[in-house]
């Protein structure tokens, strides 16, 4: 009985992905990927800057 339910769920999932989902075009996908890449680099740089500031501050405090 559970195998039939699993098979039915898989068939419904496939049908939904195949016929009801709107997939992005190649251009949309490239633009979205570039935005994510740029945002990731910016966030990484911000974290690096804060890390360096805290590192220098801790070295100053422990150096007293």
What does this structure look like?
It is a single chain. With 64 residues, the chain is mainly alpha-helical. 89% of the residues lie in helices and 0% in strands. It is built from two helices and no strands. It has helices at residues 2-20, 26-63. The longest helix has 38 residues, at 26-63. The protein is elongated. The termini are far apart. The model has no long low-confidence stretch (mean pLDDT 93).
Average per-residue pLDDT, rounded, comes to 93
Main pleated-sheet profile: none
Number of strands: 0
Secondary-structure element pattern, one letter each? HH
Structural class: mainly alpha
Q: Report the principal-axis shape.
A: elongated
In terms of per-residue confidence, which ranges show pLDDT below 50 for 5 or more consecutive residues? none
Helix count from the secondary structure assignment: 2
Give the helix level as a range of percent. Answer: over 70%
Strand content: under 5%
Oligomer: single chain
Termini separation = 72 Å
Question: C-alpha Rg, in Å?
Answer: 24 Å
